[in-house]
Design goal:
single chain, Creatine Amidinohydrolase, Chain A, domain 1, 2 domains, six-stranded mixed β-sheet
């Protein structure tokens, strides 16, 4: 692990929240992710399943967490099953969690080796009336690849057909959407690492650099600050590339007079940051570029004020749409007549601002959350309006990460990262 051990209070708290919502006599099982193959003997770097991570802090493969609050055996109310470590494994793969280290990480006292799981799980299921199974119910989740969790679910349904099956996802979405103070601290650290990357770039970018060179500068800064790297595939889009929302080729040369859209963020301890900034290649925005930039910044500043407890996200996005309409009219991109005759299902502003404004942020960049319930304090959202004008070869998007407060405006985890156009110009020309 590159990151410091996290206080087990976080995982003890999250398990207590989950267990409190479980039906009497039920248990819940959470599996780690697989290590995914590439080809031959190559594999992808391991990424832990975010739910077992949120409940235990265990960040290694072949791990299982079982929660059984009403188990007659007190030792079986919280149980971890881990891949058994050995001197040989330590030599070839590096150290794995010992039982003591697993306890110190998670706060769970009962730790068994994985080969004991079939026997002990069968004993637990004989006592349980139902089981919570963990499926991917993110609204944009792609479930084409069968996971370790999927294989487990198939086997449970085959081996225990008389048990009631319940869903973990709604409970986990609720728990993960409201961040513990320890999580906010971890996300703040991820944002500070991102800040270091941005400040490095302001002294590096100039006409003639390549998008991938900018990516390399960020990767260097992130890694040297104990991040595993990018929280998501970086977007480094110069000129007209900025009008492609998910441009990830990062293979073009940055030209004098163009603006670079940077949608990048470091991770820390598996927590994401998510930033977008727009930087003039030559260190100076043109009058038109700055006009569009400030229009996006105005929408962002006003939209942030709406991220308060009680707000419904669907209504929030409608209000942001109205804010954007005004700016697009001022920029001469749409007219009042366009607004009067628009299709309600695809408003006129969508021609230049076609994506949503905010999403949940946390262990996943597009984190799970309760989209249809009012916003609550402790939730963390991005705010990222944009204007994309292909005919001008210009795309501007600005994004920060915001913690909803009990009262007042949200707290900006990225408040120290340069944002105003003039500040960016000053730092680039220092």
């Amino acid at each position: 692990m590159k990151y410091d051990r996290i206080n087990s209070e976080l995982y003890i708290s999250n398990r207590a929240k989950f267990s409190a919502q479980m039906q009497q006599g039920t248990l819940a099982v959470f599996n780690s992710n697989d290590i995914y193959p590439v080809s031959a003997d190559s594999t992808m770097p391991f990424q832990q399943h975010r739910d077992i991570l949120a409940l235990s802090g265990v960040d290694q493969e072949e791990s299982i967490l079982v929660l059984f609050p009403n188990a007659s055996n007190p030792a079986h109310r919280e149980v971890l099953f881990l891949k058994e470590t050995s001197d040989l494994i330590a030599i070839w793969e590096g150290e794995k969690l010992t039982k003591q280290a697993a306890f110190e990480t998670s706060g769970i006292k009962t730790v068994y080796w994985l080969q004991q799981f079939p026997t002990i799980f069968k004993q637990m299921m004989a006592e349980a009336t139902g089981i919570y199974l963990n499926t991917n119910e993110h609204l944009r989740g792609n479930t084409e690849v069968e996971t370790r969790e999927d294989r487990f679910i198939k086997k449970v349904k085959q081996d225990f057909p008389a048990h009631q099956v319940l869903k973990s996802a709604p409970l986990m979405h609720k728990i993960r959407s409201i961040k513990h103070n320890l999580e906010i601290e971890l996300m703040q650290r991820a944002c500070k690492i991102t800040e270091a990357g941005v400040r490095r770039l302001l002294g590096f970018i100039k006409p003639g650099v390549w998008e991938y060179e900018i990516e390399a500068e960020l990767a260097h800064e992130f890694l040297r600050n104990r991040s595993k790297g990018f929280a998501y595939t970086p977007i480094i889009a110069s000129g007209k590339n900025a009008c492609v929302l998910h441009y990830i080729e990062n293979n073009q040369q940055c030209k004098d007079g163009d603006v670079i859209l940077l949608d990048v963020g470091a991770e820390y301890a598996n927590y994401s940051s998510d930033l977008t900034r727009c930087i003039p290649v030559n260190g100076k925005f043109t009058a038109r570029q700055k006009e569009v930039y400030n229009a996006v910044l105005h929408v962002k500043n006003e939209a942030e004020k709406l991220l308060v407890p009680g707000t419904i996200m669907a209504e929030y996005h409608k209000q942001v749409g109205h804010l954007m309409e005004e700016q697009l009219v001022n920029l001469g991109l749409i007219s009042m007549e366009d607004i009067k005759t628009q299709n309600p299902d695809w408003p006129a502003y969508k021609k230049y601002f076609m994506h949503g404004t905010s999403h949940f942020l946390g262990l996943d960049t597009h984190d799970v959350g309760l989209w249809h319930e009012p916003i609550q304090a402790g939730m963390v959202f991005t705010c990222e309006p944009g204007i994309y004008i292909p005919e001008e070869g210009l795309g501007i998007r600005l994004e920060d990460d915001l913690v909803v407060q009990e009262t007042g405006a949200p707290f900006n985890l990225m408040k120290d990262i340069p944002l105003e156009a003039e500040e960016i110009e000053t730092l680039m020309n220092a």
